[in-house]
Amino acid sequence: MSEAIAFDTHRFVKRLTEGGFTEQQAETLAEEQVALLNANLATTADIARIEAGIGTLRQETKAAIAQTEARMEARMEAVMADLLKWLFGAMAAQGGLIVALIKL
Question: What averages of pLDDT result for each successive group of 10 residues across the chain (104 residues)?
C-alpha cells in the first residue's frame, strides 16, 4: 500500500477559482493533479523497495565478480604452467644443441 502524497486540494481549488476557473473546473483539475502525483511520485516505501533491490543487485554483482576472478586465476595458473613446460623444454633443447655444437 503506497503512502498518500500531501497535496492541499482546497488551496489549489481556491487559487484556481481566484484565477478565473469555475469551481467545477478547479475541483476536476485538483482531482486529476492528485491522481497524477500519486501515480508518478515515489513514496518512502517505493524508495525503500528500490534500495533493497539495489542491495540485492550489489550482492549478486559482487558474487559474480568473485566467481569470475576465481575462474581467471585458475586459467592464468594453467597458462603459466604451460609456459613453464615450454620454457623448460626449450631450455633443454637449447642446452642439448649447445652440447652437440661443443662436441663438434
Answer: 69 94 94 86 88 97 98 97 95 93 86
Q: Measured on CA atoms in the order 47, 49, 55, 57, is the torsion positive or negative? A: negative
pLDDT of residue 7: 80
pLDDT of 42: 81
Give the distance, in angstroms, between the CA of residue 50 and the centroid of all CA atoms in the same chain: 12
Region for residue 20 given its phi and psi (left: phi exceeds 0; alpha: psi -120 to 50; beta: otherwise):
left
What distance in Å separates the CA atoms of residue 83 and residue 97, rounded to the nearest whole number?
A: 21
Q: Is 30 exposed, middle or buried (0-12, 13-18, 19+ CB in 10 A)?
A: buried
Quick check: helix, strand or coil at residue 13?
A: helix
- The domain spans of the chain are 7-41
Residue type, 66: A
